[in-house]
Design a protein that fits this description.
The chain is of the alpha+beta class and 503 residues long. It has eleven helices and six strands. 35% of the residues are buried.
């Protein structure tokens, strides 16, 4: 029986060889080159930023081509921050969503790869049949009422002569790559958001402390005016004006407390916690060290390092392979099939001499008319391919803009901090002098009030300028890719991609 079934197996083997030798229609995707002559700024970046003797005033260096560690947030030298980022990676549900999506994409590839092999099915069908009396019984016994047991194995195989299945697999592999880079983008966004949230919390704490300091100063001024009023040295209008100024300063405290509480809620969400779970760590700008070296990725590096660019490239690749699938659908297809089995009236007599049957068949199909559907599917796939290419170029432009905007911000942040510090120092000195002069009765209360308001604005502006330097440093690490290619918890394919980039 094996010898009689050999022609079917040999035909399938020949078909497989022919399929592998076939061509794959549609465009062959080539990795696009980095934009020629691309850069980030019209004028050359300074070697270092302005240094200022205050928190966050460290001079920073722009280092072209600098590599980035996978755990880049450790450059801020905060163990509490490191622990929160680690917790966010482990517990944030967005990471679980991205991982599951990647697993689903890989399984879709394996499903499609199954079409590269013959489809083999086994079946067993027991039946009981009654034949009408005028008809001759097909059973060997000649009985009109009989049982029939049929068991068979069938094999079918569609030749991939024009690469339809290879292009479909190629498209799904590219989509899996896009999902892999979407995972990296989720990782980068999450870690960046945790660090940014900690910095924003520190900024709010600083602004709150500055506002409370101003409330204290205003309270002292009000006490002084009350004493002077009792001595007949101050007018009641001055006392009322100072009370209004104090109330205004106090009114600024609750909004900052609300923002701080909401910021803690946002941080809890990033950590995968409920808002009623306490976070022991708290942050202050003075406890965070500003990284001195700033990475400026080369243009060729940026298109390899940015997960969103790599994902857009993979989507472009997938769209190109889909064109091949659409073209192949308009071309002939060949399917070979074979089956071998046996039928008997009694189950135990299956595969006994004379019960076997087999068949071998081939089918050639050429679409002739489908109302133009296949042609328009191809045209639609070609348009989607062009769309994906344009989206890739747009993503590249946005990536370069993102880096450029951050570099400009970092340079001006340093200058702004220097100016803010001078303004705060001058306002503090002016306020101190005004307080002493008011005690001596040398100035009007209006002059004192102006000095208080100027100091209040300068003090809060200084804290915001300090926070901007930290926040925009985080934004630069995110903009240049965040060092995901050095992670030790990625798949082999991701690590290979990172090695190719680094080489």
């Amino acid at each position: 029986m094996t010898h009689r079934f050999f022609p079917a197996r040999r035909a399938v083997a020949v078909a497989a060889v022919l399929s592998l030798a076939g061509c794959a229609v549609g465009p062959d995707f080539k990795t696009p080159d980095a934009p020629a002559g691309a850069g980030y700024t019209v004028d050359a970046l300074p070697g270092t930023t302005t240094a200022t003797p205050t928190t966050g005033g460290t001079a920073q260096r722009f280092v072209s081509g600098m590599d980035i560690p996978a755990q880049w947030w450790t450059l801020f030298h905060s163990p509490e921050l490191d622990a929160l980022v680690k917790e966010a990676i482990a517990r944030n549900p967005d990471m679980d969503v991205a991982r599951a999506a990647l697993t689903a994409a890989h399984e879709a590839v394996r499903v499609q790869q199954g079409d590269d092999f013959p489809q083999v099915n086994a079946s067993y069908s027991p039946t009981r049949q009654q034949i009408a009396a005028p008809l001759a019984s097909p059973a060997a016994s000649g009985n009109d009422l009989y049982n029939l047991h049929t068991a068979q194995v069938s094999v079918s195989y569609t030749l991939d002569l024009f690469g339809a299945n290879r292009r479909q697999v190629e498209s799904l592999v590219a989509q899996a790559d896009a999902q892999r880079f979407a995972l990296e983008a989720t990782y980068l966004t999450l870690t960046s958001n945790v660090v940014a949230a900690a910095i924003q919390e520190a900024s709010l704490r600083g602004q709150l402390a500055a506002t409370q300091e101003i409330v204290t100063l205003q309270t002292r001024s009000l006490d002084l005016l009350h004493r002077q009023y009792d001595l007949g040295q101050a007018a009641q209008a001055d006392v009322a004006a100072q009370e209004a100024a104090l109330a205004q300063a106090q009114a600024a405290v609750p909004p900052l407390e609300k923002q701080l509480a909401q910021q803690r809620d946002a941080l809890a969400r990033l950590l995968g916690r409920m808002p009623n779970e306490r976070i022991d760590a708290s942050f202050d700008l003075s406890h965070l060290q500003l990284p001195e070296a700033l990475p400026v990725a080369l243009p060729s590096q940026l298109v390899e390092q940015r997960p969103d660019v790599r994902a857009a490239q993979a989507q472009w690749h997938a769209a190109g392979a889909a064109v091949g699938v659409a073209v192949a659908a308009r071309l002939p297809s060949i399917t070979l099939s074979a089956s071998y089995g046996a039928s008997a009236e009694i189950a135990r007599e299956l595969f006994s001499p004379g019960t076997a049957f087999w068949n071998l068949a081939g089918n050639l199909t050429q679409p002739i008319f489908a109302g133009g559907a296949l042609l328009h599917k191809q045209r639609g796939a070609e348009a989607a391919y062009e769309q994906a290419g344009a989206q890739y170029r747009g993503t590249v432009l946005s990536a370069f803009q993102n880096v450029a905007d951050t570099l400009h911000a970092l340079r001006t942040d340093a200058d702004a901090l220097s100016v803010s510090l001078r303004a705060e120092q001058a306002a503090r000195k002016s306020l101190t002098i005004a307080q002493k002069q008011l005690e001596l009765g040398d100035i009007s209360y209006l002059t004192m009030l102006n000095a208080q308001q100027t100091y209040q604005q300068a003090r809060v502006a200084l804290v915001q300028a300090q926070a901007n330097r930290y926040a925009d440093t985080v934004a630069l690490f995110q903009a240049v890719g965040g060092g995901w290619w050095h992670r030790d918890d990625v798949t082999d394919s991701t690590a290979a991609a990172g090695s190719a980039k680094a080489g």
